[in-house]
Amino acid sequence: MAAYVLRRLGGAVAVLWAAFTVSYLILYLLPSDPVAIMLDQGAGGERVDPARVAELRERYGFDQGPVQQYLTLLGRTLTGDLGTSISSGAPVSGLIADAFPETAKLAGLALALALVAGVGIALLASWTRAAWLRDLLLALPPLGVAVPGFWVGLVLLHLFSFTWFVFPAVGNEGFASLVLPAVTLAVGLAAVVAQVLSQGLREASRAPYVETAFAKGSGRARVLGAHVARNGSLPTVTVLGVLVGNLLGGTVVVETVFSRQGFGRLVENAVTTQDIPVVQGLVVVAAAVFVVTSLLVDLVHPLLDPRVLAGGHGRSGGGAR
Amino acid sequence: MVPNPPRRTSPHRTSPQRTISRRSHAAPAAVATALAAALALTGCSGPESASGAAPAEPTPGGTLRFALGAAPAGVDPQQVGSNVSIYVARQLADSLTDQDPETGEIQPWLAESWEVSDDLTRFTFHLRDGVTFSDGSALDADDVRASFDAISGDLGAAAPLAASYLAGYQETEVPDPGTATVVFDEPNAQFLQATSTVSLAILAEETAEVDPAERLQGDVIGSGPFVLESYTQDQGAVVTRREGYDWAPEAAEHQGDAYLERIEFSVVPESGVRAGGLASDQFDAVGDVLPQDVPQVEGSGGEVLTRANPGVPFVLQPNLTRAPLDDVEVRRALLVAIDRQELVDTVLSDAFAPATGILASTTPGYADLSDRLAFDPEEAGRILDDAGWTEGPDGIRVKDGEPLEIEVTFTPVFTGSGPVLELVAQQLRAVGVDLRLRQLTAAEQTTAQDSGDYDFYYYNVTRADADILRTQFSTAQRNLSLREPDDVVDPLLDEQLGEADPATRDAVVAEAQEALLDEGLAIPLFELSQSIGVRGDVHGVTFDASSRLLFHDAWIEQE
């Protein structure tokens, strides 16, 4: 077990470094630079004095070579200093510290809602003997995947905020402001969970051990709960690791529609202004979230299926998938 | 400023008046719309007074919840450039002078009076007594000096707009605490108007010492009617009323403290959410109302206020180093090949006006050149025929084997831009010109601008002074046309900057506008308008001369 964990940890560090390096390369290769963009936006259409641009570029260290800049950034990041935003001058760590808890709340609630709904749909579809109900339930996941998140958000807003004021349309104040965005974010997520889990359950229920269990006299509930669900949920756990990473991406849209402070808004803004220190900070944090969830998934796997540790099913490679 | 985002709205052609257009409902609206259209057609505009039964007495108190369409870049008056940033920052600080939105005249504000030397290099301001900053300290000439020294010094890199107003700045002399003389090494006719802008607002001397980044985050001390309570990047800002404010400009409706106790600005990027939030009483006022959201705003008893931005309207500026726009005849043909009224009627709304010159009609010194911009496709065809551009097999004109293909580079910062340009392309195709759209992000646009990689550059700039022509078109300035210095346009643009007599300066500026159009150095399209939605119980929100919002006179009916 210790070797398994160590291997996974090593992979995690490699992923973090790769994310940092690749995002730096992409940002560096973009033809424009954040200083010019920032000045252009503040200039209100007036010409920006090239001497000013050069002065600021020097202040931010952009006049150095790419390798030098990269090493400086990497060294700083390793010591925990994420630098300051070029467009606003605010410390990156502060920006992330303000934004991350808000997104964590949103993503956490969305994940919980998605699990309840997704698992509920899959279990009910496996349990029911009414064909019409099963068909109806199994039709929901494709629908949930197909509707775009911002559309769901706008419909929810229209109904539950503008027409009947149940929840506020914007902001981060209190639990009420969290409900509509979390539901919006949860729809697509629940659909994937329901889809993958019902598929897994269907396959697991065809396995020989199910017949054995029934033959031993177990009831339907026990067979579904103890045998089918345990084996059939493995793919879902794997997919969940990826979904949590995707959740961060989903917050870009949801936080914009609901005007919430958070990670997604920060990402959007930093990318459009090519604010390198902020983007780099966000990439590192996002990669860390991804790595941690993957690690958790890897650690949960052996609990569900001891064969993972036996090596037969061991997957090669790092923690991210 | 910035390719000003927002703005699209409803009825009422905007007028260059401080009075804001207000929409009433049903039948009167139709009449007003017809009237507005008639005014637009004749190229003139008139004042429109508030409609509806406004309660007589403003009531102090209350919080105004304002939804901004985009995030402010910061709250330092001297550094910010975008409309939404200025909505917030303008409330925190005052300027030496104020500009009358109706006449363009410069009026006293922090300066009671001023003298300008004949050669326009020395501007002496006599400051008003008794003005204090929000920290209680007195505002005196040292603060003026510190503000301007900072802008032309270390702050300048981060405050390019303010720095451009102070180009050629030598020093500020302070003979006594009530007098500041700003000295330039060259004549600077635009400076007086510049002192009325938020960019040259006067901040406390100690603010000049603060790091630009920290200032942007809110570490600024001003003398405005409101003080900053909080600012959160990408989220918004809260300002609260300053007690003892007693130096509003003359144009204000009232003297003394602002009526509103607080203004909560929040950033709400989705226009539908802003409108829905206004209709469901989650906001009191919203920025950037889009045409499709107007019915919702008005249906809930609210109004849409609009005013055209002064400065350079949305134009197509040709890159003269590239074919086919290096051909002056092509540029001249394009001037009359565009049906500007159709742009407004079809893809914008009557809150917008067709461009009638190379300056927006709300700009002091504006010359009405609508006769040169009258839609005349036959004439356009004739010019192109004479210049040797003959119709090719697919309807696109050809000369020496080269098709008449032009690419326009634009960003969708203003949401109407894409549809407008698509319609322009359609109109140009009718005269045999193939206009292709190249949509870029702001970052890509910056790169394209720096490398001169464009045929037409599409943009607008806000400034309530005709000097904007020089800063945009002079070969020594922004010069998006990459034009070589000449002996017609450049001298005119420089001359107005040294012209002390307003009437003479206007005449020079008018000549420059004609010269610019003669050469087809910009193809004007339409004027940008600010459009603000307010609830029925909100009154007194006003536009300044640059079409940015003022809240000193704003009030909310109290229950």
TrEMBL record, chain A:
Main location as per UniProt: membrane
Transmembrane segment boundaries: 12-30, 106-125, 137-166, 178-197, 237-258, 278-297
Keyword terms, alphabetized: Cell membrane, Membrane, Transmembrane, Transmembrane helix, Transport
GO CC annotation: plasma membrane
Keyword Cell membrane: yes
Coiled-coil stretches noted in the UniProt entry, renumbered to this chain: none
SUPFAM superfamilies: MetI-like (SSF161098)
Membrane topology value: Multi-pass membrane protein
GO biological process, one term: transmembrane transport
The keyword Membrane appears for this protein: yes
Localization: Cell membrane
Family: Belongs to the binding-protein-dependent transport system permease family.
Protein name, entry field: Peptide/nickel transport system permease protein
Species: Promicromonospora sukumoe
Organism ancestry: Bacteria, Bacillati, Actinomycetota, Actinomycetes, Micrococcales
UniProtKB/TrEMBL annotation, chain B:
Gene Ontology CC entries for this record: ATP-binding cassette (ABC) transporter complex; periplasmic space
Region (Disordered): 1-27
Domain Solute-binding protein family: 105-462
Classification via CDD domains: PBP2_NikA_DppA_OppA_like_15
GO molecular function ontology, one term from the record: peptide transmembrane transporter activity
A Gene Ontology BP annotation from the UniProt entry: peptide transport
InterPro entries with a match to the protein in the record: Peptide/Ni-bd, SBP_5, SBP_5_dom
Superkingdom, natural source: Bacteria
Pfam entry (one): SBP_bac_5
PANTHER family: PERIPLASMIC BINDING COMPONENT OF ABC TRANSPORTER
Name of the protein in question: Peptide/nickel transport system substrate-binding protein
Organism name: Promicromonospora sukumoe
Taxonomic placement: Bacteria, Bacillati, Actinomycetota, Actinomycetes, Micrococcales
